[in-house]
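Reviewer 2 asked us to include a model.

Predict the structure of this chain.
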Amino acid sequence: MRWPLVCAAGAGAGAVALLMRDPHQSGSWGFCWMHITTGMYCPACGGLRGTASMLHGDLAGAWADNPFWFVLAPVLVAVWAVWLVQTGRGRPLAWRVPTWVWIVFGVVFVLFGVVRNLPGFPLVPS
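Predicted model (structure tokens):
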């Protein structure tokens, strides 16, 4: 169970850091190179702010920060939970993510990045 717990410890440390230093304050966690150089928002922009909002129970704020991450984060938690349970039972995960899942993820990720940069579209980080 070492690796699922190591991942949990890393995520926990990141959560504590986000609770201690608010990413909603400009420059508190650095800046986005893509936004600085191109003026465009990448698909991940707002992910730290969204995570901090989720940690504070502000789901509407998390959605406003990054809807893609708002949907993806619980999926990743569920995958981690399955990994933890399977490892705890002495049965390491024997499945692999099918190629089509990675392709769909990549297409949705890129499309979200394009759509959030369209003029007047409301998917811009707050």
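The chain has a mean pLDDT of 90. Helices lie at 2-20, 33-38, 47-55, 59-65, 67-88, 99-115. We have added this to the supplementary material.
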